Structure to design on (208 residues):
């Protein structure tokens, strides 16, 4: 989802600053010590602007991060506004494949088996662009995990329990994920492939 991508970008930007800023400080201190023949760094006088910057700038950065976080929460609330229109997509984990029952497949579950192509399946899960849906995930044998990193989706599939999450497809394409919970010998061979297509624009009808 869009808000998941924005939140991921924010986290990556914060991590980048957390790594670059300390590295820059250590480099500058090292240069000062080397140029001063390993002597201690001494300040001739206090700098008002230096103290002002290292006091005020962190507050500004925290304020910006809080603002972006509020934007993220607002987008989540917008998603829940569409919850009553969401189409239910049922997902069932097996050893070692997935079964789906989506709203336009004509009813009934169909199995999605891995093919010879790495990360490929014979029957991918297809959802429509811009149509909110609700994943309902469970398992029939052991614990699996339905994970799609491109949309920050990770839902545990547990026998006898239902796990759900709202999802709004915001871009077309083919997205690949894998079971992220160790579930046996074939754990590495149960990929999930989701295709997001614009059915209304292309006039497509998907049937299995």
């Amino acid at each position: 989802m869009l808000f998941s991508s924005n939140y991921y970008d924010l986290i990556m930007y914060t991590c980048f600053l957390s790594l670059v800023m300390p590295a820059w400080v250590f480099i500058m201190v090292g240069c000062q010590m080397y140029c001063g023949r390993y002597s201690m760094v001494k300040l001739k006088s206090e700098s008002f602007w230096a103290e002002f910057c290292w006091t005020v700038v962190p507050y500004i950065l925290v304020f910006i991060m809080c603002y972006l976080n509020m934007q993220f929460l607002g987008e989540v609330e917008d998603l829940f506004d569409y919850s009553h229109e969401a189409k239910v997509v049922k997902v069932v984990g097996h050893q070692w494949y997935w079964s789906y029952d989506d709203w336009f497949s004509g009813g009934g579950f169909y199995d999605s088996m891995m093919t010879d192509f790495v990360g490929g399946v014979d029957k991918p899960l297809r959802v429509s662009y811009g149509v909110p849906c609700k994943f309902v995930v469970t398992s029939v044998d052991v614990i699996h995990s339905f994970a799609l990193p491109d949309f920050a989706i990770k839902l545990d599939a547990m026998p006898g329990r239902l796990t759900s999450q709202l999802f709004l497809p915001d871009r077309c394409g083919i997205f690949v994920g894998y079971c992220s919970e160790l579930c046996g010998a074939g754990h590495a061979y149960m990929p999930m492939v989701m295709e997001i297509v614009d059915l209304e624009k292309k006039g497509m009808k998907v049937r299995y």
